Automatic annotation (TrEMBL):
This is Uncharacterized protein. Residues 1-22, 47-77, 93-115 are annotated as: Disordered. It comes from the Eukaryota.
Length: 115
């Protein structure tokens, strides 16, 4: 009877070890899947960043080509380069157009400023 009990205990311990090994394999597989998913996300983010950099370079080249095509023949290269730099920095595009002051009525011309 004792031998049967020892055999049953041994079989139960073996089954428990096998179940623990299966759980460990499943945990390792899940961890590997998480690592692979994170790596895929990093690769996708890197591809998106590269595409954005390429798009920005294409846009800058298009602006430069447009400015070169639209530039009057008499413009100095330094002026063109300054305008190109301002456009690339967003300086010109973000500024409102100047509004001319309204004409001063004839009766107000020459009047003191406090009048």
């Amino acid at each position: 009877m004792a031998a049967a009990r020892r055999e049953a205990d041994r079989a139960a311990a073996e089954a428990e070890r096998e179940e623990a090994a299966r759980r460990e394999v499943a945990r390792a597989a899940a961890e590997a899947a998480r690592v692979e998913e994170a790596a895929a996300a990093r690769r996708a983010a890197a591809r998106a960043a590269q595409a954005a950099r390429e798009q920005e370079a294409r846009e800058e080249a298009a602006v430069a080509a447009w400015m070169e095509a639209e530039a009057p023949e008499h413009e100095e290269p330094a002026v063109l380069e300054a305008e190109r730099a301002a456009v690339q920095e967003g300086g010109i595009a973000n500024q409102p157009l100047p509004v001319p002051a309204p004409p001063i009525p004839a009766e107000m011309q020459g009047a003191p400023a406090w009048a």
